[in-house]
Amino acid sequence: MKINIYIIALIHLLSHTAVGETLRLTNGEWPPYLSKELKHYGVASHIVESAFKNVGISVKYGFFPWKRSFILAQRGKWDGSVIWSITKERKKNFYFSQPVAHDVNVFFYMKSKPFEWKKYSDLKGLIIGGTLSYYYGKEFTKNEKDGNIYVERSVKDETGFKKLLNRRIDLFVCNLDVGYHLINNMYPIETASLITNHAKPIVEAPLSLILSKKIDKNKRLIKLFNKGLHQLKDSGNYDAYYDSSRRGKYKK
């Protein structure tokens, strides 16, 4: 009887372990977070893969257009997708992990022309560059609409950085990691190093791994992922990955 109880307990344990499992996740193009053209498929892909590796799970990525990536995960054709912001609508269909990344928009500026700001009135008299159709949060939008700040928008982020280097604008708004990715790809290191960012975020939103609620195992796997992510942060590798990305080390 004792042997039978032991066998039953062992079977129960093995049925709940993740070792040897492979998770299929949809992915897309949003460098430096996600890209088929970067090492480890980008810094966010690297973090997800490493966090799962900490708990014995392998990851297979499939790259698709964003809409298809979402639908494939939503319908349970793939286990989940990387990386998405939380909405009430999405929470109906997905389990959300602890944040893998943060969509942080900041002011980039020339090191030769430092500035400080705590409130939008501090930006009076400065020419701020932005990108057409981009949303920088409720507070930024209100101050732009009310004329408290002057914003000159361009078609592409790349144009904004060119204007910044040519002193045609004083500040440029961009996602922190996207900004450094663009700078490192557009310019040699001597030129890229002339630009820095202000530490104060303009707006910030967490971005998470999402796993489909249509797949039974995913409720367990999202908890295991969070455990692996915590281990990755404790090891210092989480911050090290982002530091490497911002220095252009994920380029192939």
From the structure above, extract its key features.
252 residues; alpha/beta; D-Maltodextrin-Binding Protein, domain 2; 2 domains; 10-stranded mixed sheet; 10 helices; 10 strands; globular
Description:
- By secondary structure, the protein is of the alpha/beta class.
- It has two domains: 2-102 and 205-246, D-Maltodextrin-Binding Protein, domain 2, CATH 3.40.190.10; 104-204, Periplasmic binding protein-like II (D-Maltodextrin-Binding Protein, domain 2), CATH 3.40.190.10.
- Helices cover 39% and strands 23% of the residues.
- It has ten helices and ten strands.
- It has helices spanning 2-15, 43-54, 66-74, 88-91, 138-145, 157-165, 176-186, 189-192, 218-235, 237-246; strands at 22-27, 58-63, 80-84, 94-96, 101-110, 127-131, 150-154, 171-175, 195-197, 203-212.
- Strands 1, 2, 3, 4, 5, 6, 7, 8, 9 and 10 form a ten-stranded mixed beta sheet that branches.
- Helix 2 packs across helix 9.
- The longest helix has 18 residues, at 218-235.
- The CATH homologous superfamily of the largest domain is termed Periplasmic binding protein-like II
Please state the CA-atom Rg, rounded to the nearest Å: 22 Å
SSE class = alpha/beta
Q: State the share of residues found in helices, binned by percent.
A: 25-40%
Give the termini distance in whole angstroms: 59 Å
Anisotropy-based shape: globular
